[in-house]
Amino acid sequence: MHYSVLLNESIEGLNIKPDGIYVDATLGYAGHSSEILKRLTTGHLYCFDQDEEAVKYSFKKLDSISPDNFTIIRSNFISLKEKLNELGVNKIDGIIFDLGFSSPQIDNPERGFSFMKDAPLDMRMNQDQDLTAEYVVNNYKIDELSNIFFKYAEEKYSRSIAKGIIDNKPIKSTMELVDVIKKSVPIQYAIKKHPEREIFQAIRIEVNKELDVLQGVLPDAIELLNQGGRICVITFHSLEDRIVKQQFKKESEINSLVSGLKEDEIPDEFKPKIKLINKKPIEASEKELKENSRSKSAKLRIVERV
């Protein structure tokens, strides 16, 4: 069903205690969750996912491993702190975020994530939400589309592609959109760069508000950690990795307002909340790359609560 990227490295990075409380913020098809659950005895695993198909599949998988030691919460992880608090969980020992899209989601044409298969323009992680890729493509103004393509895809022909979309509305399918994108840029650029890949990524990020959600949840994840608890984050593109890197850097350094004080003079609220376990991101091994080419862009960052 799905290849779990950097599986061994992230599970090892969590430093799992058998009696600990852990969270998989991106359950997907339970690759990471299964390995966490196998290592728990009296501990508990809380899993978040908003994709109904993934939740149904993963429940059966986890139930066959340890039926009493996990809880699945059908929600976007932006509600992490709120949903855990509702269940009486105020502190945890570790949390993992795997920000990649699972293979079944990409490979299922009906979901509209792939630029290589014809499908309706959907791209919703949560299929109960109203905003779809079709709405973005056919209702956003040229400036809005251009900004999304530039910000989320770093595409130099953002304006030209946005104009192409506006001039060819309505666009109903993924292949229609791919055709418009290719015709909106110089032919050699289209052949060499395949801008449809990044444009689809940009629309997907907009539909699911991925970067806003990530930026919002990291401070909550850090606050939830017990001392010695760890966060593992696997990212798949530079925009995500930049957010994670900057947030972890900020929270692992002494606040600049008190940088002149001695350590014992610094109030607790100005001290570092976390320490970096790896300063450079961990990337997939040669063995993993041979098994799964989608691991190529993956980067793992790990921090520990101090």
Describe this protein's structure.
- The protein is α/β, with parallel strands linked by helices.
- It has two domains: 7-98 and 210-305, Vaccinia Virus protein VP39 (Rossmann fold, 3-Layer(aba) Sandwich); 109-208, DNA polymerase, domain 1 (Orthogonal Bundle).
- It is built from 14 helices and seven strands.
- It has helices spanning 7-14, 31-38, 52-63, 80-86, 103-107, 133-139, 142-153, 158-167, 174-183, 187-193, 195-208, 210-224, 238-251, 286-291, and strands spanning 21-24, 44-48, 70-73, 92-98, 225-235, 274-276, 299-305.
- A seven-stranded mixed beta sheet has the order 3-2-1-4-5-7-6, with helices on both faces.
- Helix 7 crosses helix 8 (158-167) and helix 12 runs parallel beside helix 13 (238-251).
- It is globular.
- The mean pLDDT is 94.
